[in-house]
Amino acid sequence: MEKKVTLRDLSEKLGLSTAAVSKALRGHEGVSEATRKLVMEMARSMQYKGISEAKAEDKQTDNIYIIVDHRELKEPHTMSTYFFIDNALKAQGLEVSIHGVPIDGDDRAIFSLIERERPLGLLLFGRFSPKFAEELKATGIIIIVIDYDYPSLNFDVVMPNDYQGAFTAVQHLVRAGHQQIGYIGDRKLSPGFHDRYNGFIDALEYWGLVAVPDYIYDLRLKDVYGKVDFSPLIEHLDTSRLPTAFFCANDPIAQVLNNGLNARGVKTPEEVSVVGFDNLDSSQWQYPPLTTINFPREHIAQTAVDLLFWRKQNPQAPCRKILVHPDLIIRKSVVPPQKR
User: Fold this and answer.
1) Exposed (0-12), middle (13-18) or buried (19+): which is 213, by Cβ within 10 Å?
2) CB atoms within 10 A of CB 78
3) Quick one: three-class SS letters along 268-295?
């Protein structure tokens, strides 16, 4: 069976960006007439069947595609968010399907699918390379980015207010009486993690507390293969010098910390209180049940769907970045500090 020519194939053959090729094929402004003719000639010679001179972008289906890192397809965070997106779209009489691709976007199948099916919109969930995101944008399909941000690209974005969530977590610890508060995370992992780190630091300053370097573990949690692994963090922890409480950048980190401390004879929350972020279902079954910042999945899902329909009606309007305020879920992993 002959392999279908994709937008990326044309781009590589011509030595142009996918965005420039897409504009030329669609008759949009931003490319010269000479470039437009060159692209059209190459498209004909390669028998490109995607976006035609007849502007095939008008022939859209009523499907919505969620694109997510293929390694996270079965993650609780992913599936819970997908559940709420599916409910919101079904209420509008639309179908949604989820597609896992590598985070670097090196998967031609997804571009072939998009060009063939022409979905109504794409929901880009999580972190991908800017190059992949730019190539998706070049398809001309409406894209809403969820729980991530691409500062160099012009996208509509819906995400939790990570900065405010971290600030709220520290506030809760301070009101419980803690003055020695530590942090565990990786601020380079994503813009959201970076905002959580900044919220933690600014909250300490707001409450007149010192950010003690020995209490702050800004780790690199992504390995050379791009996989995120939280388990090694306990190896970096100096149990001879601990704060009375930790704010962790997400629930998996908090769970690893909690289990690691108890394995080393440090009781939680009696000796060290712990707060996480995301409110995964598993956090309530920890011992002790984990106090955490709730990732407002249902509200984010509904907001993303509403934004998609708004964008369809307002294609030329400036892009929006909507921050949804997360709330604190109080359980039993935080108590007033006690003398060791």
Assistant:
1) exposed
2) 20
3) CCCCCEEEEEECCHHHHHCCCCCEEEEC
* Alpha-carbon 261 to chain mean position: 29
- DSSP track, 123-184: EEES---HHHHHHHHHTT-EEEEES---TTS--EEEEE-HHHHHHHHHHHHHHTT---EEEE
Name the strand (E) or helix (H) holding 206: helix 191-206
Other CB atoms within a 10 A radius of the CB of residue 225 amount to: 7
- d(CA 241, CA 239) in angstroms, rounded, equals 5
User: With 0-12 CB in 10 A as exposed, 13-18 as middle and 19+ as buried, what is 15?
Assistant: exposed
Q: Are strands 328-329 and 291-294 parallel, antiparallel or unpaired?
A: antiparallel
* DSSP 8-state secondary structure symbol assigned to residue 317: S
> Residue 329: in which H helix or E strand, if any?
strand 328-329
Secondary structure (3-state) at 124: strand
- H helices then E strands: how many in the chain? 11, 12
* 253-278 residue pLDDT tens: 999 999 999 999 999 999 999 999 99
How is residue 65 written in tokens? 């595609």
pLDDT in tens, 175-205: 999 999 999 999 988 889 999 999 999 999 9
pLDDT digits 0-9 by tens, 201-258: 999 999 999 999 999 999 887 654 566 777 778 788 899 999 999 999 999 999 999 9
Element (H, E) at 191: helix 191-206
Answer whether 146's CB lies under 8 Å from 210's CB.
no
- pTM value? 0.79
Handedness of CA 14, 18, 24, 30 (dihedral sign): negative
**Which domains, from first to last, does the chain contain?**
7-56 (1.10.260), 61-154 (3.40.50.2300), 162-295 (3.40.50.2300)
Conformational region of residue 279, where left means phi above 0, alpha means psi within -120 to 50, and beta covers everything else: left
Tell me the sheet residues that pair with 144.
123, 156
